[in-house]
Amino acid sequence: MRLIFLGPPGAGKGTQAGFICQRFGIPQISTGDMLRAAVAAGSDLGLLVKAAMESGGLVTDEVIIRLVQERTDDPDCVNGYLLDGFPRTMAQAEALDEAQVVMDAVVEIEVPDDEIVRRLSGRRSHPASGRVYHLVNNPPKTEGLDDVTGEPLMQRDDDREDVIRKRLETFHAQTAVLSSYYSGQTNSGPVFIKVNGLRPIDEVKADIVGRLERL
Ligand code: ADP
Ligand code: ADP
Questions:
Q1: For residue 53, is it within any domain?
Q2: Is the CB of 121 under 6 A from ligand 1?
Q3: Is the preceding peptide bond at 87 cis, omega within 30 degrees of 0?
Q4: Residue at 43 is within a domain
Q5: Most CB contacts within 10 A, which of 48, 100, 147, 159?
Q6: Residue ID of nearest Cα to ligand 1 atom 4
Q7: Is there a contact between 72 and 79 (Cβ–Cβ < 8 Å)?
Q8: What average pLDDT does this structure show over 2-24?
Q9: Which are the contacts of 119, defined by CB distance < 8 A and separation ≥ 6?
Q10: What CATH code is carried by the domain that includes residue 22?
Q11: pTM for the complete prediction?
Q12: Residue of 6, 15, 49, 88 to mutate, ligand 2, most atoms within 8 A of C-beta
């Protein structure tokens, strides 16, 4: 099972990706999580991508394509994987096509911009695992702490209103086009699944799982 998750920042991709990966036993490849780990470690990659991430812009296609290629070559990817946050530009989608990787489905989670701002302002995360919470919509059992490890939750530097607006602009300018790119591939390409992301987390989950199980 090879899957792509599309949708604006804050649509719930990471949240749903966690469920789907558990259900189908595939690794979650989140380019955002990988890049944040590199920044936190102060590696060469981290230094290269820090400014773009802080400003709400995109990291260059070349860097991202190499990162994903290396990750999908790992042995745990032989039975499939879920791409969360990649591709994000036409050039990245074309690189996937050129690598002749057969994707089974593209899941797009639709959420309007005003809801995105509310979601991202309340987002808290556990960086080591990628688990995400929301102050109101999906609070941890104990305030400020991860449910599984009990470690402190963090607020991402780019989840501030000014950067959120910039990320939404970037999404509309460079990523939104991928929806029509994949929905237009009726015969040859992956199955295109569009879900309404405005419903509660469990309903969105049931919808996605149900539609993937029918593939
Ligand atoms: P993405 O990976 O697309 O950026 P996340 O999964 O990190 O999105 O979700 C963004 C924020 O919205 C998090 O705080 C998460 O808890 C919350 N969230 C996710 N799905 C829903 C939903 N269906 N309804 C309400 N809040 C949600
Ligand atoms: P979100 O939760 O908002 O969807 P991510 O965690 O996926 O955000 O990504 C955080 C940041 O990492 C992005 O704003 C961007 O700077 C960078 N990034 C992640 N994935 C990509 C990608 N495929 N191409 C370019 N930049 C990326």
A1: no
A2: no
A3: yes
A4: no
A5: 159
A6: 10
A7: no
A8: 96
A9: 10, 12, 111, 134, 137
A10: 3.40.50.300
A11: 0.96
A12: 88
Q: Is 68 in the pocket of ligand 1 (CB under 6 A)?
A: no
Ligand 2 contact, 167 CB (< 6 A):
yes
Residues 6+ apart with CB under 8 A from 100: none
In contact, 119 and 201? CB cutoff 8 Å: no
Amino acid letter, 164? I
Average pLDDT, the chain: 95
Q: Are 16 and 69 within 8 A, CB to CB?
A: no
How far apart are the C-alpha atoms of 128 and 164, rounded to whole Å? 22
In a domain, 74, yes or no: no
Q: What SS3 class is residue 145?
A: strand
> Given a cut of 80, is residue 186 above it in pLDDT?
no
Domain count of the fold of the chain: 1
